[in-house]
Amino acid sequence: MDAGIICKDDGSYTVVRIPNEESSSNMLELEIFSSETGTWTEFNFSCQVRNYSRSNHKRLYSTISYNGILHWAADKQIFAYDPYRSTDQCYSMELPKCSERLERYNLAICCGRLCCFAGGESLRLWELTNYESGKWNLKHQRNLSEICSVHARLHELFGSDVTICFRPLAMHPFNWDTVYGSCGSRLISYNLRTGISNLIDYGLIPAALHPFILPPWPTMIPQPSWGPDDI
Fold this sequence. Notes:
Elements: E1 2-7, E2 13-18, E3 27-34, E4 39-46, E5 60-66, E6 69-74, E7 77-81, E8 91-94, E9 104-110, E10 113-119, E11 122-130, E12 135-143, H1 144-149, H2 152-158, E13 166-171, E14 178-183, E15 186-191, E16 197-201
Antiparallel strand pairs: 1-2, 2-3, 3-4, 5-6, 6-7, 7-8, 9-10, 10-11, 11-12, 13-14, 14-15, 15-16
């Protein structure tokens, strides 16, 4: 079971739980919680996606909210669901095409744009430049073996003769060049442009990272609707 949350400007939110167990059914089952009603509702409907099967969700990855719509990647597709508009419809778009076999796709939001990154022999980062047509633009590509080899501290921890694989986990929300991931049991940040890495955490790390952006503080007070002549 995976879950995503959509927050609205008025403070209300919706939580969507998505099953990821293997099944041959083409019925999408979602459990939705609304903060406005305080209750859970279950929806079952046929997914409007070509060749859809719940067995695709055995490889369910990051779930994010983009423009008020929940998006998640499963195998070679991105699924999109809007609980405020059509509770019985789900749409999809193709993930970026790549000749290299990529082990894991992750969705993220950087600088207000939907992006996707994946790792195989190399780490690739794409930006979605056109939501309607599903057009992707490759922004970065780095050999994964280079990422771990540049950090001397990792060699001290694991030994220079130990091969450590980098697994990308998250993007920096405001910097296209910075990605976060794990090397062994350590969390590092890596600059895709300069090749500089930084060790962030010395302990065990989770299987996934979920970046949250705190709203500006103090909260801006709306300007009054009356003019100076009305005072």
